[in-house]
Write a structure and sequence with these properties.
The chain is mainly alpha-helical. The protein is built from 6 helices and no strands.
């Protein structure tokens, strides 16, 4: 299958939006979830946080892009790129959210990245 550059751009955009969703949700929930609220208030407290709203929006856009891409390319080609989300979230968590990055996480992230290169090249 001949995959055009615009299709790869859409794949990367979808993966980026999915990773952004994870980072938005993590940022929104860093302060925790107040379990002392009544169920309705708890749901509103969590769902109305700007980061949660942004994360859900990013997930929705990512899903729409993924559906479009899957209508144009084989899933066996598209799916390995989703692994880039792990790399983006690990780096984004470290850079944007100050989350720890130790040698094990770095090694695991590099292994995932290498696997993506191997799978996408074949």
């Amino acid at each position: 299958m001949n995959v055009r550059l615009p299709l790869l751009g859409l794949i990367f955009l979808s993966v980026g939006l999915n990773a952004a969703a994870q980072l938005f949700l993590r940022a929104a929930l860093r302060s925790g979830i107040p379990l002392d609220l009544r169920p309705a208030a708890l749901v509103l407290d969590v769902w109305l946080r700007p980061g949660v709203i942004a994360g859900i929006a990013c997930y929705g856009l990512s899903l729409l892009l993924t559906l479009f891409v899957l209508s144009k390319a084989d899933a066996s080609f598209v799916y390995p790129f989703l692994g880039l989300g792990f790399v983006i979230v690990a780096v984004g968590g470290y850079v944007l959210l100050g989350e720890p990055m130790n040698p094990r996480k770095i090694a695991g992230t590099l292994i995932i990245a290498a696997g993506i290169v191997v799978l996408a090249g074949g």
